[in-house]
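DM between two lab members

TW: hey, do you still have the Zinc-binding dehydrogenase entry open?
JB: yeah, one sec
JB: this one, 371 aa:
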Amino acid sequence: MTYPRTSPAAVLPAFGGPTEIRELPVPPLEDDALLVEVEAATLCGTDVHIADGDLAGPGFAQVPLVPGHEIVGRVVARGRDRRTDSLGRPLREGDRIAWAYAWCDRCYWCTVAKQPTLCANRMMYGWGPSDTAPYLTGGFSRYCYVRPRCRTVLVPESLPAPLAASATCALRTAIHAFEALGPLHSSDTVVIQGVGPVGLYAQACAVAAGAGQVLAFGAPAGRLDVASRWGATRAVDLSATSAEERLETVRAHTDGRGADVVVECAGVADAFTEAVDLVRRGGRIVVVGAADPRPSLVPATTFNLRQVSVVGTVSADISHYHRAFAFLERHRDRFDFPAVLGDPFPLDRVDAALDSVRTGGMKPVVLPSAA
Ligand SMILES: [Zn+2]
Ligand SMILES: [Zn+2]
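TW: and the structure you got?
JB:
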């Protein structure tokens, strides 16, 4: 096909306001870049925080911007040096891919710490700005520009595009968190705080990894039903129980010890405080969902006298994307993964999709090529 000159995109001109459809320029293709046509882009709470201006500032969200960071697309054009994906598999026009954020490979975090998700010069998708090249850096657009430093993976054709898009944020984040956490044992009791898409995917990871018991804490009832279908030993309604009652539930399942592992996917500061109460002496907490700037007050003796370990992870590198797709393929008969998805929306209804996240809907899907 001929290289397109412009692309319709949902642009957020100002924080807190509506998006509008604009025709953005398609930048000239750099030698190691790609242009993709977006098949599906899903939303999460981060998109709402970005749109509302909660994450504004240099190095963070800048308007105008094209929202959307959970993206699966098909290759429209390849730069001449972009011959394979990051696993060495040939990359052709028409192939379906996902890609990680662009990292610089020349900062302390990229090269020495080997923690590229903390890259000092990272360039993210869905964070803007869209008024400077390469313009098309959000998923809610017909075309998206894959920067030269973005690592890519082929996405299995067997996966529905919206489901694959959800793996590029919620599931790859959970996979990264479990990698940082380390092994799970068949005797472990794992508490998952939160039953949103990240929490549900984290639960699936724990169940699939063979944890002995998995207790899911969250709300509302519909999401708890999914947790039960996905193998939760108990699905506990956060809105109908007190913290004391949840602690009693965990103790009742663990001979009074507390949970071996607590996975925080809830987002609020109180969740971490509760995680410290729920975990056993010598247990592990992994912080995945925290999005609350308020401090969580916990005694420092938690970490020496009770020997509790805490790890946290943000985003994911390309290995986690690949493992996320493999996880979906391998376990699709065991978990009805599409249960994490919400309604589909065309490009001109991105605001309604954002509103559905604000009102507690499951992960909505934007289909930029839909009429
Ligand atoms: Zn996301
Ligand atoms: Zn870097």
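TW: got it. The chain has two domains: 6-159+332-367, 172-312. The pocket of zinc ion (ligand 1) is lined by residues 44, 46, 69-70, 169 (CB under 6 Å).
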